[in-house]
Write a structure and sequence with these properties.
By secondary structure, the protein is mainly beta. It is built from 10 helices and 49 strands. The longest helix is centred in the middle third of the chain and has 10 residues, at 385-394. Residues 27-50 are annotated as: Disordered. It comes from Sphingomonas mollis. Residues 389-813 form the TonB-dependent receptor-like beta-barrel domain. It is a multi-pass membrane protein.
Length: 855
């Protein structure tokens, strides 16, 4: 459903990553952009070629002759996938591993052996420009809707040259162009069994002979896929006004905005039952959700330098609230017969307010234990022993400790073991971190240059050169990260820890409305800036059936990083705050200081530069058979952190045989050098530990579509790889026992099989999908293995009339349990404690659909 569409007749135009000419053709969009999803994509290209604009810089170049690993998914493919998130759409690209368990946003994805959560190496673009310069986190500010025409991707290869921070892959979402020929209108209503209600629209029409506009977007109400007492609202709107010059070329002014709330799901407790993952009584694996009413709004004490009131509200009711406002200008103008000039620029103002509930964070499995253990002052078993010690000091007549349910007011003492062990059918309590993270950012990008093409006989050459400039600023407020004690069930309750007399009467309260600690993750105040310039050139040469490509990009990044400093003495909590914790914990003192003074100096500034380069070749033996090979050396900027390099070797074969067979196979090796990231020290979460390692992956990627008869087709895409860790260090110290381990959260096997049956008389199609995710490890120490799983989905698209289409689909119809991530804040040497562990899980069976009206 991806490359299979393109391999037959696909033509490659100029790369949207660097050249505007290919994106904005002076003709109507390709036929497939207007094709109803019910029409099979293999037949959608009968009357004309699909045009791909990502990964190459030569116009009208068939994909079979390309020397890059390029994937196309058109609108029909996207609708067939019925994505619930941006991450879901990435599963249309072979080699992308998606951990789509966080909800609609903030999901993890990686490529070709990179450890889970490596999304900053995968650049998400919209119409050829990065959604965010840094790559990671772009799904907060982008959703697919009816304004999106198709998805295009290039993995490795030219990606590291033709865009910034895309050394692993570039995923480009291409918008529909304004319609210059007729009025076009689409409306869609979508609903799912878990409560999603959404309305989409798209409208376009010509205004004058050379002027047209389009506008589209959606409005929704969505409680999220897991059980939730809250409902989250949201909207996005995007529009464009385009003028086409008489002599060719265009100028397009566009804008978009949005304000979207989404549910968020972190890890939750699981247990092993006969070697298979299972749930805990009271908390279902498929739809269970710790969050709920108790987390609606919690006032957390914080430094007055961070928030003058001395409080910062954690609002579980808001989930993740993302706001965007962007304006963009694209210009293309041919100069003569062989030169095209282009320029595009965009300014994005964005923010997100992240209210994340993280069970087990910091304490890990040690925080998941019986209520009796919590209340018994034994240093070896109680996760709140320091609180209990402070309770004895504050209330000397204490006979025992107990818990008080903040919702019901019921008090249970530590001597009421029968009642405590029956709590929610499991007897557990846990420590849950309230992570309130606010980002406010500005991201300006500019890409300008030109393409010169020359042709003489069998000799053709296309040279593209240009400059990219990005100026970005991000301010972060992650102060007031605190923890509460709650039970283990869906819509869990929070408990106060109380001191009791001999008759179990409350004589004092140790916690603050369930809060047992403040400032868990440090001061949490940061500012980051980047000002970058890239110079790039890409040349593509064809001599008969041989094509040789080469490109280089040099980037200089001047980065500035400041961290809010922690006071030597923690600030007292505000008057009226109850409990025995009398300071706000790690206290922002109002002073900023350079991050990593040894690297940045007193001004907090560091300038780094590096070049990425690639060379590839393709030989086309026949019109239907070709081989290619490519080498690439790319990199990822990391603000003031060391630049990470990615080296790629790949060789592939492409073959097509009419409608019967389209396929490609690619052998690859990737070397991720100096992969560097931070994680919370599981002993002291306020301390950030650093891991540095080399990752080496050897694998094969396949994407094959077989159509033995006109009305039936099967697509198989997948990756089979052997990723390994090398030279791992933690905080600069070499670590034994990690060499040769699998990188955390990286499967060795990942494949999808998609059969489709065409209904007679063009009525639509029935399709299925089986997705297999191989075993992954939750940690670099390979201590916790999360088993493989397979998810089966089915769907039907039915054309009720020429203008009305019904799409129904069901996901995970066999209710399979699938786990991702583990507990990343437990460290790099995780373990299963007494059969229990933390992980994130896929949801159970869901079903729903949409009705689309075309006018």
């Amino acid at each position: 459903m991806t490359n299979r569409c393109a391999l037959r007749t696909l033509l490659l135009a100029s790369c949207a990553s660097i050249t505007l000419p290919a994106f904005a053709q002076t003709t109507e969009p390709p036929a497939t952009a207007q094709t109803p999803p019910a029409q099979d994509p293999a037949t959608a290209t009968e009357d004309g070629p699909d045009i791909v604009i990502t990964g190459q810089t030569t116009r009208n170049r068939p994909l079979i002759s390309a020397s890059a690993d390029i994937t196309l998914a058109n609108r029909a493919d996207i609708d067939r996938k019925a994505p619930r998130s941006t991450a879901d759409m990435l599963e249309l690209v072979p080699g992308i591993f998606v951990e789509g368990t966080a909800g609609a946003v903030s999901n993890n994805y990686s490529v070709r052996g990179l450890q889970g959560g490596g999304q900053r190496f995968v650049q998400l673009q919209e119409d050829g420009m990065p959604i965010l310069y840094g790559g990671g986190g772009a799904d907060f500010f982008f959703d697919q809707d009816l304004t999106i025409d198709r998805l295009e991707a290039v993995k490795g290869g030219s990606s590291g040259v033709l865009t910034v921070n895309g050394a692993g892959a570039t995923i480009n979402f291409i918008s529909k162009l304004p319609n210059f020929n007729r009025t076009e209108a689409i409306a869609r209503v979508t609903a799912y069994n878990y409560g999603l209600k959404r309305g989409d629209f798209y409208y376009s029409q010509p205004i004058a002979e050379n002027l047209a506009f389009n506008v589209g977007g959606y409005i929704q109400s969505n409680p999220g896929v897991r059980d939730n007492p809250f409902d989250y609202a949201g909207w996005r709107l995007k529009g464009a006004l385009e003028y086409r010059f008489e002599g060719g070329g265009f100028v397009r002014l566009s804008a978009k905005g949005g304000n979207v709330e989404n549910a968020y799901y972190a890890t939750q407790p699981y247990r092993y039952n006969d070697g298979e993952p299972a749930g805990i009584p009271g908390l279902g694996t498929q739809f269970g959700n710790i969050g709920g009413d108790a987390f609606n709004n919690i006032a957390v004490p914080v430094s007055t330098f961070a928030h003058p009131s001395g409080f910062r509200d954690f609002r579980g009711r808001d989930g993740i609230k993302s706001k965007t406002a962007q304006i963009r200008l694209d210009i293309e103008k041919p100069v003569g017969d062989s030169i095209n000039l282009f320029a595009r620029g965009r300014y994005l103002k964005y923010s997100y307010d992240f209210n994340g509930i993280f069970p087990g964070s910091g304490t890990g499995n040690a925080g998941l234990t019986s209520a009796v253990n919590y209340l018994t002052p034994n240093p070896a078993t109680s996760p709140i022993i320091d609180l209990l010690r402070a309770g004895f000091a504050a209330f000397p007549t204490t006979q025992r400790f107990g818990i008080k349910n903040l919702r019901t007011g019921v008090v249970l003492g530590s001597n009421q073991t029968t009642e405590l062990n029956a709590l929610n059918g499991n007897g557990f309590l846990q420590r849950t971190t309230l992570n309130h993270d606010y980002i406010d950012g500005k991201d300006f990008g500019l890409n300008a240059g030109g393409t010169w093409e020359y042709e003489s006989g069998d000799f053709k050459n296309s040279l593209t050169a240009g400059v990219m400039y990005y100026n970005v600023k991000r301010s972060q407020d992650q102060s007031a990260t605190a923890s509460v004690v709650n039970d283990v069930r869906t819509n869990s309750d929070i408990y106060d820890i109380v001191a009791l007399d001999a008759s179990n009467n409350v004589i004092g309260t140790l916690s603050d409305n369930g809060l047992v600690s403040y400032g868990d993750w440090g001061a949490g105040i940061r500012e980051r800036k980047d000002s970058t310039v890239s110079l790039y050139a890409n040349d593509e040469l064809a001599i008969g059936d041989l094509r040789i490509d080469g490109g280089i990009r040099w980037e200089r990044d001047t980065a500035t990083a400041f961290d809010g400093q922690t006071a030597a003495v923690n600030q007292d909590v505000q008057p009226g705050v109850v409990g025995v914790v009398r300071t706000v914990g790690s206290t922002f003192n109002g002073v900023y200081a350079p991050t990593n003074l040894a690297r940045t100096g007193a001004n907090g500034k560091l300038t780094q530069s590096k070049a990425s380069y690639t060379v590839g070749a393709n030989y086309q033996f026949t019109p239907n058979f070709a081989i290619y090979a490519r080498y690439a050396n790319g990199f990822q900027t990391n603000n003031i952190d060391p630049i990470t390099t990615i080296e790629l070797y790949e060789a592939g074969v492409r073959y097509q045989y009419g409608r019967l067979f389209n396929g490609s196979a690619t052998v690859f090796r990737t070397n991720f050098r100096n992969q560097n990231y931070n994680f919370a020290d599981p002993v002291n979460p306020t301390v950030q530990s650093n891991i540095n390692a080399d990752l080496r992956t050897i694998g094969v990627e396949i994407d094959v579509n077989v159509r033995p008869i006109d009305w039936f087709s099967v697509n198989l895409q997948g990756v089979f790889q052997d990723p390994k860790l090398q030279n791992l260090q933690i905080n600069g110290a070499n670590q034994e026992g990690f060499e040769g381990n699998r990188p955390e959260r990286t499967p060795a096997t990942l494949f999808t099989i998609t059969p489709a049956v065409q209904l007679p008389n063009g009525l639509g199609e029935v399709y299925g999908r089986y997705k297999h995710i191989g075993k992954i490890y939750a940690d670099a120490g390979n201590g916790v293995a999360l088993p493989s799983y397979g998810v089966t989905s089915v769907g039907v698209t039915y054309n009720l009339s020429d203008n009305i289409q019904l799409n129904l689909n069901a996901d995970n119809i066999f209710n399979v349990i699938g786990l991702t991530e583990g507990n990343p804040r437990q460290g790099q040497t995780q373990a299963i404690t007494d059969g229990y562990f933390y992980a994130r899980g896929i949801v159970g069976a869901t079903y729903g659909g949409s009705v689309t009206f075309r006018f």
